[in-house]
Amino acid sequence: MERIETDLCVIGAGSGGLSVAAGAAQMGARVVLVEAGDMGGDCLNAGCVPSKALLAAAKAAQAMRTVGPLGIRPVEPEIDFAAVKDHVARTIAAIAPHDSQERFEGLGVRVLRDWGRFVSPAELRVGERTVTARRFVIATGSRPVVPSIPGIDRVEVLTNETIFALRERPEHLVIIGGGPVGIEMAQAHRRLGVRVTVIAGHKALPKDDPELSAIVLGRLRAEGVEILEGASAAAVDPCPEGIAVTAGDRRIVGSHLLVAAGRRPALERLDPAAAGVEVTAKGVKVGPDLRTSNRRVYAVGDAAGGLQFTHLAGYHASVVIRSILFGLPSKAAALIPHVTYTEPELAQIGLTEAEARERHGSRLEVLRVPVSGSDRAQAEGATEGLVKLMVARGRPVGVSIAAPHAGEMIGLWAMALASGAKLSTVAGVVLPYPTLNELSKRAAGAYFSPRLFDSRLVGTAVRTLQRLLP
Ligand SMILES: Cc1cc2nc3c(=O)[nH]c(=O)nc-3n(C[C@H](O)[C@H](O)[C@H](O)COP(=O)(O)OP(=O)(O)OC[C@H]3O[C@@H](n4cnc5c(N)ncnc54)[C@H](O)[C@@H]3O)c2cc1C
Ligand SMILES: NC(=O)c1ccc[n+]([C@@H]2O[C@H](COP(=O)([O-])OP(=O)(O)OC[C@H]3O[C@@H](n4cnc5c(N)ncnc54)[C@H](O)[C@@H]3O)[C@@H](O)[C@H]2O)c1
């Protein structure tokens, strides 16, 4: 049994673990990185990257069908589903070197490719080795939940871990779950020529502002995706035509079943209890500094039981590095944007309207600017969507955007909210014309317009000054 002593041991080489390991090693710490599966974790191999590559192919196919208004003859694209999957695989392969064992070893990290399991508060067993570290970071991510619906164990179930490897085009994909995974996969598959039914349980895209998610869901429905809301999948049966799913009074028969019903933290191989690390149903219990009940052990990313995003895992890494390497107090902030990469994209930062109303009551002002007001959107013939801005006491407290490239647009607001900027800063910034983010500036300007243009005081002051000024 080899014993390894190190400053920092990171368990899991996904978005969170890789960022911790790279940062700490480059700043001089001795780092051991433990990974049982593929380097890069879920985001690279079965999450963000393959889903965005599939959506890109689907977008290209849809553009061929809908380009008519721009004066180009639309055609129904010929889709080679296996070749689309080759594009997905090539995208992963192009990014993989950045997350590879070789790159990390080049940074001086010792990489162990096996399961890690705590055997004491300061020791992790990894195969035939025992790692003792001054600090540990749990970055083991999450796994898809397959709900125990009666009959589900009698059919083949696809999850995000298997769907990207499917090379034959499904006839009819039934998706259980209307969260970001279900909705992104629904639009991607529909545009690639698949009949799609989503069983969304209570509501589709429930974490977003309903006014904005209605725009996205309306587009999916217009493209032919059937979205059933208000009934959960209650039974699954194999049948001669494929798989039958019962939801409310509907029985939907599809050829393939994707389960996108949420994710649970991946802790079953880790034995956190052996390290005195407390766990709840949501994940590892952490404080605002991401420390667990064992002060030597931190948790980041999906394993930490909060929101599940790659950019959050990366941000968590910066929080724990500050604490582990420099012993500085460090706290995770609450302002995390999220984007669903449908067309139009759906982006959110800060409070939704409902949350802002609850927090700020009558002090809340809501500004709306339709995407059709953008010259750029008009030029490109993509005018569907809305920018919605929540303002309290002259400061932006939340922004919801459904628009082409909403994920790019929300960056401006992420900066504004994170820096506590006043709305006048956004209203006063000079942006290039014609860009979609002029809509953001216009939304900010809409807050000031009535104060300037409809104010008797301003009118009187201007008229008086015009008489007095030389
Ligand atoms: C289909 C899909 C699309 C997504 N799209 C986006 C998106 O567009 N944008 C976004 O921000 N987020 C997206 N996400 C979420 C994102 O993928 C996750 O939030 C992110 O991967 C979390 O990173 P992580 O480091 O916490 O965990 P992971 O990336 O899951 O990495 C954890 C790693 O730990 C390893 N591991 C687990 N247990 C052990 C153990 N005991 N010993 C050793 N190794 C272990 C696993 O093998 C894994 O490689 C998507 C998710 C899915 C499913
Ligand atoms: N673009 C992105 O950033 C992106 C994309 C995909 C996933 N993600 C992340 O991955 C995580 C997992 O996504 P997800 O969509 O799997 O989970 P989710 O928890 O967001 O949504 C799952 C949905 O499935 C529904 N559901 C559960 N059981 C059901 C049943 N029996 N019948 C019908 N509906 C049922 C739930 O009501 C819920 O709305 C999310 O937290 C998200 O943050 C992010």
From TrEMBL:
It comes from the Bacteria. Disulfide bonds join C43-C48. GO terms for molecular function: flavin adenine dinucleotide binding; NAD(P)H dehydrogenase (quinone) activity; oxidoreductase activity, acting on a sulfur group of donors, NAD(P) as acceptor. SUPFAM superfamilies: FAD/NAD(P)-binding domain, FAD/NAD-linked reductases, dimerisation (C-terminal) domain. Binds 1 FAD per subunit. NAD(+) binds at G177, G178, G179, P180, V181, G182, I183, E184, G262. Residues 7-316 form the FAD/NAD(P)-binding domain. Residues 336-443 form the Pyridine nucleotide-disulphide oxidoreductase dimerisation domain. FAD binds at K52, G116, T140, G141, S142, D302. Its cofactor is FAD. InterPro entries: FAD/NAD-bd_sf, FAD/NAD-binding_dom, FAD/NAD-linked_Rdtase_dimer_sf, Pyr_nuc-diS_OxRdtase, Pyr_nucl-diS_OxRdtase_dimer, Pyr_OxRdtase_I_AS. PROSITE patterns: PYRIDINE_REDOX_1. Signal peptide: none annotated. Coiled coil: none annotated. Pfam families: Pyr_redox_2 (PF07992), Pyr_redox_dim (PF02852). Keywords: Disulfide bond, FAD, Flavoprotein, NAD, NADP, Nucleotide-binding, Oxidoreductase, Pyruvate, Redox-active center. Belongs to the class-I pyridine nucleotide-disulfide oxidoreductase family. This is Pyruvate/2-oxoglutarate dehydrogenase complex dihydrolipoamide dehydrogenase (E3) component. It comes from Cereibacter azotoformans.
